[in-house]
Amino acid sequence: MYINPLLVTTGILASMVMPVYTITPQELIRAPLLRNEHAMTLLRRSVNESKFRKREQLINANGREYLIQVSVGTPPQLFNMTLDTGSAEIWVPTTKCPKKVCPYERFDPNKSSTLTVLNEVFSIQYGLGNAEGVYGQDTVSIGTTSVSNQKIGLVNNTKDILGVVSDGTQSNGIFGLGYPGLNSARGVKNDIPFAFHLMQQQLSFFSIYLTNSHQTKSSSSSGGGEIIFGGVDKTKFSGELIYVPVIDYDIQHQHVSPNVGKKNGTRQGGTYLYWTVPGQGVSTSKNYTHTTNDVVPFVLDTGTTMTYMPASVVKGIVQSISTKKKPVFDVFNSIYQVDCSLRNNKRDSVHFQLSTSKTEKQQQPLDISVPVSELIIPLDTNDLATATSCMFAIAPAQPSDSLSSAPTWLLGEATLRAVYTVYDMAQNRVGLAPYSPHDNTTSSSSSAENNIQNPNNQQQQQQQQQQQSSASSIGRSSVITLGFIVLVLTL
Ligand SMILES: *[C@@H]1O[C@H](CO)[C@@H](O)[C@H](O)[C@H]1NC(C)=O
Ligand SMILES: *[C@@H]1O[C@H](CO)[C@@H](O)[C@H](O)[C@H]1NC(C)=O
Ligand SMILES: *[C@@H]1O[C@H](CO)[C@@H](O)[C@H](O)[C@H]1NC(C)=O
Ligand SMILES: *[C@@H]1O[C@H](CO)[C@@H](O)[C@H](O)[C@H]1NC(C)=O
Ligand SMILES: *[C@@H]1O[C@H](CO)[C@@H](O)[C@H](O)[C@H]1NC(C)=O
Ligand SMILES: *[C@@H]1O[C@H](CO)[C@@H](O)[C@H](O)[C@H]1NC(C)=O
Ligand SMILES: *[C@@H]1O[C@H](CO)[C@@H](O)[C@H](O)[C@H]1NC(C)=O
After folding, report:
1. What φ, ψ does residue 261 adopt, rounded to 5°?
2. What's the rounded mean pLDDT across residues 175-185?
3. Exposed, middle or buried: residue 4 (CB in 10 Å: 0-12, 13-18, 19+)?
4. Which residue from 213, 165, 172, 163 is spatially nearest to 60, judged by alpha carbons?
């Protein structure tokens, strides 16, 4: 887990010249995820239904990351890419990348009639890993929905991203869902992420849920979860969605500084970068509570396995839920090794508190409850059920992890599995509700209008997760920390 430092200088935003894009067809896209260990084939759902009923599967790669099948070029070349809300670029390995470095399917530029190779260097640094090459523009499709002239990275070299795990479905590229500002702030022009292109077609939000494979048995939907562009699936959460605002950042000064808290939360004219929401604390069902002094930024990142928080907070959480067998802090890897029997602890939970305001903490914050059993990751085997060495999915953020001048609170996929999330690009807000699938074979999606709820409805939060705790198979080597882009502002 080596995280490169965040280098920040004074930033300027390049003025945008918009190329012409066409997007087809004008309808919602559902992209199911599936988990690789038990479902080795993509379970495609039929896409014939009403215009608001199109879904594609996502692939849950051993609970370490979630993949989406994306096609690039004409005729289409297919890639299983990491679904990543913590970055905003799309890239694929190409035939220019040696097989040793890019061992899976490689995009052959010569075989795409719609590709334009641009004379611009592509270079990206993630929390862990990097990729480089040149930029191109080509048709990118998910299911039958395509964006033409989508800017993509044509990668000829990469490190610590492809082939980092020993088995299962492999990530073969990154599919970024972060704000366009993450690209423009780095000086990359006209680089609008796929999801944001879809806004032109009234697909102004997308929703995501992440599951594990053991929940698929009787469900009509797929194993790994789904991303749905332009819709929400009411059969996958309980209660109503509660909305929290997305926090923008001041990038005009020396630091990338989130516009959050009593003072900075009122600042205007910031840039949206990450899917960052207001947080105000964390607690456990076992007598640990940490309330922040002010509202702080929590980054929602589907591309990172772990959840990162200030060290003292993580220590408090780990100690409060620990068994007789005391947790051990592994200094080298900066993680806590914990008693594997905690995999059976569905009674206790860790609670993350979000505020519905950028400036004020709430008396009744939105509470994300994650059972302790969901936060245990096996170290000595891929199978949690038989592991004898385990780590805790919440770890101390290193100073070098920092995404901004504020302390890092990053909610990764182990935590995000507990919630159904709606990423609203048009209104810059995120809707959340406890993930809670209830089978309904006849109706599993509908239009936004019918389902997007009023954010200000104060709802009783469902503490009781119906999620089955299953043996998420996450090997040591398979913990992915790459999921957020390291923002390097350029002059
Ligand atoms: C994506 O992953 C699925 C599930 O493992 C697999 O069936 C499919 O062939 C993969 N697609 C590509 C393009 O690698
Ligand atoms: C979708 O296809 C299935 C099977 O082909 C069919 O039974 C169903 O009526 C179709 N649904 C719609 C809305 O066309
Ligand atoms: C692709 O085209 C270029 C230029 O025409 C050529 O040099 C290269 O060998 C081709 N690559 C493949 C894999 O065919
Ligand atoms: C890969 O792309 C980078 C950036 O465009 C370039 O500097 C480098 O020479 C390329 N390497 C190869 C092997 O093509
Ligand atoms: C508010 O923003 C300023 C300027 O970017 C920064 O120096 C300061 O640390 C921020 N304050 C808080 C509480 O985040
Ligand atoms: C909770 O923690 C406080 C302070 O450490 C302690 O006094 C109290 O006994 C604890 N309560 C329980 C139920 O463990
Ligand atoms: C499933 O969906 C159908 C159609 O929307 C609805 O009539 C039915 O009540 C639902 N069943 C359950 C168990 O929610």
Report:
1. 100, 170
2. 93
3. middle
4. 213
Residues in the chain: 491
* Secondary structure of residue 316 in the 3-state scheme: helix
Strand 376-378 to 390-392 pairing = antiparallel
Q: What integer is the mean pLDDT of 218-222?
A: 42
pTM of the model: 0.80
Contact 94 CB / ligand 4 (< 6 Å):
no
39-85: pLDDT as tens digits:
211 111 222 222 333 455 566 665 667 889 999 999 999 999 989 99
Per-residue pLDDT tens for 358-368? Answer: 999 999 999 99
Q: 2 alpha carbon to ligand 4 midpoint, in Å?
A: 24
Ligand 2: distance of its center to the CA of 441 in Å?
A: 13
Closest-lying ligand 5 atom to the alpha carbon of residue 260 = 14
Q: 10 Å Cβ neighbour count for 311?
A: 16
Measure the CA–CA gap between 475 and 491, rounded to whole angstroms. Answer: 41
58 within 8 A of 68, measured Cβ to Cβ = yes
Which ligand sits nearest to residue 172's alpha carbon?
Answer: 1
Peptide bond into 76 cis (omega under 30): no
pLDDT value of position 399: 73
Secondary structure (DSSP) of 186-226: TT--S---HHHHGGGGT--EEEEEE--GGG-TT-SS-SSEE
For ligand 4, the distance from its centroid to the CA atom of residue 464, given in whole angstroms, is 51
pLDDT digits (tens, 9 = 90+) for 242-274: 999 999 999 887 778 999 999 999 999 999 999
**Ligand located closest to 108 CA:** 3
Half-sphere exposure of 311 (CA within 13 A, CB side): 8
Q: Give the containing element (helix H, strand E) for 288.
A: strand 288-300
- For residue 29, give Cα distances in angstroms to 55, 201, 407: 5, 12, 36
The sign of the torsion formed by the CA atoms of 419, 238, 355, 346 equals negative
Nearest bound ligand to CA 120?
4
Residue found under tokens 């059920």: 385
Answer yes or no: is the C-beta of 120 below 6 A from any ligand 4 atom: no
Cα–Cα nearest to 82, from 259, 238, 230, 302 = 302
Q: Are strands 335-338 and 390-392 parallel, antiparallel or unpaired?
A: antiparallel
